[in-house]
Amino acid sequence: MRILIFGINYSPELTGIGKYTGEMGAWLAARGHEVTVVTAKPYYPAWEVPVHYKKPAWITERIDGANVHRVPLYVPKEVTAKKRIIHEFSFLGGVFPKWFGLLIKKRYDLVINITPPFHLGFYALFYAKLKGAKLITHIQDLQVDAAKELGMITNKRLIRLMFRAEKYLLNRSDAVSSISLGMKKKILAKGISESDYLMFPNWVDEQAIQPLQKTQSLRGEWGIPLNDKVVLYSGNLGEKQGLEIIIDAAKRFSDRPDVHFIICGSGGARDRLKAMAEQARLKQIRFYPLQPYEKLSALLATADVHLVLQKKSASDLVMPSKLTGILASGGFSLVSAVPGTSLYEIVDTHQLGILIEPESAEALADGLQQALSTDVTLYRERARQYAERFLSKEQVLQEFERNLVRLTSHEKQT
């Protein structure tokens, strides 16, 4: 198949949507499909474009068999709702003058539109209709719902307009996919029929990420004794997670020098969290940058307890992608989730960790007390088994490929 991927994030971004879209593009190319990608210059989660990507303005490169066209965009140093809107629209502006003009000269069988940002879909829809290609809208985050629920956009007229625009795009997609059952329910409630929906969960390469012993972890590199306890939060340090409660909970352990809190990642909230820890004089909290992929198993093996935190208002609008790696590494998780959501149901049904109330420093501290005194052997075994059974990269992508083939085969028959 000839496949065109539209998305603002792509490899070499190490976390979030770019990681999964990049792995998908590479996997499809390795299967013999012709893959072209229109994306932005890498910037996430640090919100900074690497020096070697800054010039020239438009770049074409080949990554793992895919032709990748990169366009310039505005990347704010401080991320606010208003600046994020400008950031996303600047990407659309960058697409139009150069790459979009080149792409309409060629016909692809499929256009895979990755959202957010949801309004990128107007370009994808225009191309699909112009060239008679099939359009799949893949939803990693329900951006408009999240903007409303998290209070990122408070203008009611603008929110209504965004919901109408989203509905227009979804109704005109040949298929809509998302990553969880909770998101599926919300998408079907928007008027999408079950027959047009595809489940396409985020995956993990269970061969690359393996359970390791503590002696193989980063404890030696970071000077942490093997018998001490480590609480780890790794990933995007953004506003959706409500990460300030880690600092508040850590205060309860200030008299426990054997309990270390590691915050590993980058994002808009990093400096604020670091300042909070310094102001509270919490010496047991350390901050590290995102680790390279080849160190991921060692990083995950460092922790006794992994934190998977989410705000109540983000329930079933986003799904924490970090959980896939934690499960593959056989990690034990302390998860904040609302009952009835996909995250809660997965953890509860399969007994993968301890569940706590979101946005509560007291609940987090109490959960940590419980977690640090729990025999987690069975939890770790179940985590690895769940990853192998439900999140295997090969299984997930092969099923997605079968759906793509079905979609294009139907086109050829009709």
UniProtKB/TrEMBL annotation:
Keywords carried by this UniProt record: Transferase
Domain Glycosyl transferase family: 217-389
Glycosyltransferase subfamily 4-like N-terminal domain mapped to chain residues: 15-203
Keyword Transferase: yes
Pfam families found in the cross-reference section: Glyco_trans_4_4 (PF13579), Glycos_transf_1 (PF00534)
CDD domains given in the database record: GT4_WbuB-like
Entry-linked Gene3D superfamilies: Glycogen Phosphorylase B (3.40.50.2000)
GO MF annotation: an example: glycosyltransferase activity
Record's protein name: Colanic acid biosynthesis glycosyl transferase WcaI
Annotated source species: Parapedobacter luteus
